[in-house]
Design a protein that fits this description.
This is Cupin domain-containing protein. The chain is 3% helix and 42% strand. It has 132 residues and is mainly β. The chain has one domain: Jelly Rolls, CATH 2.60.120.10. The radius of gyration is 15 Å and the shape is globular.
């Protein structure tokens, strides 16, 4: 892991520009706005805004986990629901924040049409593993 120090970070600002939302990322039902954190921290962390761009479908529900050191999600708009290993179904609403411990297995079970999330992950490059 890269040590966190001022030497491997730089100042950056990311202002909202609707054109910055891109599809083709990890999930087909989401668009992502990269906030520039990975570049500013030399990969120590990443942060992005996620918008759900398709209505929820059970076909999107795949049990998976992320090989991360830290993951925080904050609901900016709407609501988002997941089932977490050992925690059951949790529905987070606008203003809710949660931390997913490293490798916790979870399944997305629903979201509102206006759902928008902020996600912060360490490190920037990490694996998402679909459980079988």
């Amino acid at each position: 892991m890269t040590a966190v120090s001022p030497q491997n970070q730089r100042f950056m600002v990311s202002h909202l520009n609707e054109d910055d939302f891109e599809t083709g990322g990890l999930r087909s039902y989401s668009s992502y706005r990269d906030l520039g954190v990975a570049a500013a921290t030399n990969g120590i962390a990443t942060a992005h805004v996620i918008r759900m761009v398709a209505p929820f479908s059970e076909s999107f529900s795949q049990r998976h986990h992320h090989d991360v050191q830290f993951q925080l999600i904050y609901v900016l708009k709407g609501w988002f629901s997941s089932e977490f290993e050992g925690q059951g179904v949790q529905t987070m609403r606008e203003g809710s924040c949660w931390i997913q411990p490293p490798n916790i297995r979870h399944t997305v079970v629903g979201w509102s049409d206006d759902c928008e999330l902020l996600e912060v992950i360490l490190p920037a490059q990490h694996a998402t593993v679909v459980d079988e």
